[in-house]
Specification:
This protein has about 250 residues and is mainly beta. It contains one helix and 22 strands.
């Protein structure tokens, strides 16, 4: 009988009496895979503009078996980082620490983390570090260390936020529209702040578009038009929608 493979890490499971003379090399590879899962680090390029699927290749080292993934590259389009839902051994359950080190500073490209076949991705805020878990059906956010999204109105005048975004907006050149996430979950947060070196929101305002949800219980967009203003919006429920969790104005 041929070898079998475990589900999550596709370790080679040798059948009794098989693989004569190969136990040493197979065992060493299995131990290296376990080392990847415990403390392994890999870089994954997201620069191609297409979705990237992590590998859990049978019985070998692969990027999807590392604990820590650093996403790199200058992005040319929005894409997904896809966690396999199954392997030869069955349903895959994985935990990843993911660092965003991509270059998205001059565009509005997004990265979603998702389990293969899922329609419930986790958006990765620019510059953030997150911990996610996949149960073979969906991916869930376990922890987030927020990053910073910089918007210069000389080149970008609209942006759709994701949960966890901290957005610094320079409106010296133009007004800007920041659209809140379309299908928020309770406790989702977005922070928007005036980062203009001169002038600021008092000269060119930021419109916070509600994107179908209420803001402060009203079906109306929110205008930020005070210099040095900084507001954190938190999603409370379907009735109140987004509430101002904190504001310096």
């Amino acid at each position: 009988m041929a070898s079998n493979y475990s589900s999550d890490l596709t370790l080679e499971l040798i059948t009794t009496g098989e693989k004569a003379g190969l136990w040493g090399s197979i065992t060493n590879t299995n131990l290296q895979i376990l080392q990847q899962a415990a403390s392994g680090y890999a870089t994954v390029s997201m620069s191609g503009g297409a979705d990237v699927t992590l590998s859990l290749a049978d019985g070998s080292l692969a990027n999807g078996k590392n604990l820590y993934l650093k996403l790199t590259g200058t992005m040319t389009g929005s894409n997904n980082l896809i966690i396999p839902a199954t392997s030869t051994g069955g349903t895959v359950t994985r935990v990843y620490i993911i660092e965003d080190a991509t270059d998205r500073t001059t565009n509005n490209y997004t990265i979603n983390i998702k389990t293969s076949g899922s329609s419930n991705p986790i958006a990765l805020p620019e510059g953030a570090n997150i911990i996610v878990r996949s149960d073979g059906t969906d991916t869930a956010l376990a922890l987030i260390q927020k990053g910073i999204k910089n918007i210069n109105s000389a080149s970008v005048v609209s942006y759709t936020a994701v949960n966890g975004d901290q957005i610094v907006v320079d409106t010296q050149t133009n007004t800007v529209v920041v659209t809140l996430p379309a299908t928020p979950n309770v406790t989702d947060e977005v922070t928007i702040m005036d980062g203009s070196a001169a002038g600021g929101f008092g000269t060119n305002a930021v419109t916070v578009a509600r994107n179908g949800s209420n803001i402060n219980g009203a079906a109306a967009d929110y205008t930020m038009n005070v210099n040095n203003q900084c507001v954190t919006f938190i999603y409370a429920n379907a009735t109140k929608g987004w509430l101002l969790k904190s504001t310096n104005q």
